Task: structure prediction
Amino acid sequence: MARVTPVLWTQKKNKKGHCPIYLRIEANDRRRYVSLRTRIHESHWNDNKRRVRKTHPQHEAINNLIAQRVAEAEGEILKLRTDRERITVETLKDSLTPETAEASGDFFVFADDVIQDFERRGSIYTHKRYKSVCKKFRAFTGEPLPFDKITPRLLRNFETHLIEHYKNNRSTIAANFNGLRSILYKAIREGKFPQADNPFFHCVRLSKPRSNANSLTGGASPRKQRHVWRCSRSLRNGTTHGGVTRRSGMPPRWNTNSSTMLSNPQVLNCPLYRGNSSCLSRSIMGIIAPPR
Result:
């Protein structure tokens, strides 16, 4: 069932402590928000009646605006039901924001809506990550950016731009492209962009570099790798190397108890393992391979 509810967005206060008023549109278990471009202090909002209190000097004008926009949305819902058309949050939002409907073919207009939705749902990390990606992409392409202008050639040029301008490595570039791909796929699912024109079908898929399974010795010098391996071997066999010895009465080689080893002062004070219990546990279990 579709419904429209005025809400005060307290998560987005400005420096004066004023919060924006939004219309929350709900249909088919989905939500969208339309800004009324009006801010008030939280103390002037009646959350039960979803209206502005009389303590605000312009409460009548703001309440009339809220009632008018709610009536417009409910009228659109009634019209869609009369015509037996499907009611979607996108259709209702476009009816309330004609300027947004005209720019619905712009990638950044859609991306900003997706990013704001993450913030409203409390996905702060995802919100910041997508916002950072779109900031780089917007600075590279400029605005507006129609969906049909996103081509494999544009993506390849953007990849080169990330390398030259931002000095991004392969892992960071892959993360940026994953963010753009996710936003574009959301647009495809909502019918704003045809799947056949998806530019990611025609360009090389970037992937993050595989991490070295031997994380303790990966990237170290051969001398340090030999020291790490001998030190880990001493933990299992009871020999002495690098100031690390196995405690008397410990289990046999392949049944070494990592919790016992982690409590050994000699082990904890070793410069190689100090503050790195995960690497110590890996060496105890014999995961570290001998250097060649």
